[in-house]
Structure prediction request, 302 residues.
Amino acid sequence: MTKPRIIYHILAFVTVAIWGVTFVCTKVLIAAGLDPAQIFAMRFIIAYIGLWLICLIRKGQATRLFGSLKDELLFLVLGISGGSFYFLTENHALANTQACNVSFLVCSAPLWTLLLSLILRKTGKSEGQENIRLTPKIIIGTLLALAGMAMTIFGRESVNFSPKGDLLALAAALCWAVYSILMGPASARYGSIFITRKVFFYGLLTIIPFLLTQAPPSLATLATPRVFLNLLFLSIFASLLCFLVWNKVIAGLGNFTATNYVYLNPFFTLLFATLLLGETLSVIELIGCITIVAGVYFAAKN
Prediction:
């Protein structure tokens, strides 16, 4: 493995580690009375402002306002699949079922990405996509990662199922798969900062109809340290920085190899829940975490 690819693998690992905490943060904000659409809007508005500051400092292509009409339509779909609809379905899923269920189902995104990549390859529409072939390593790595996720999620004493919440989580996984697939051709033509800014813009634009149905949160609620700090973390780290880095990772590793790291989300969610919330980790969950890491490593060596 060359040095540049190792760097992209490290960046993918760190990004997914940060995203592993977001399930807990979002659950806290929902418990504080914030609507899923409001959570998305506030975190992305802050991130969008920060992104424009970076654009003005960097100048160059990042400050341009528009791409071609065809590419603007592509950015719109990216903003919906990786922005508004993804976070709406994920956040509403968290409001209707356990965070562990959401973590498991959302992290099936690499599997859907693989299937979509193979379908596009078969139909000859694989421009900008990673050249993926269904090898034994990919099959074994994927099965190991899925088995590890099942152990980490279902290896605890109490697991509750909610059809509505679980279906929404699955919809979020499909949204992320579409985002990963479409980011390939976008990355081939534009820089990470410009693409990320477009994703944020169209994500915020398409969330407006959902915001109009909700009363705005009170300033007293937003000023609560627990709410403010969680929003700040989601905005600056999980949105602004992580989306910039992730789009670079997809360009550097390919859409499937990068998305494969999403399998690690339950591992980090459990890890931080143990460290920050004092939750205990069972032997089965620990074995599951090790199995996930092995699966991701195995598939990434393809």
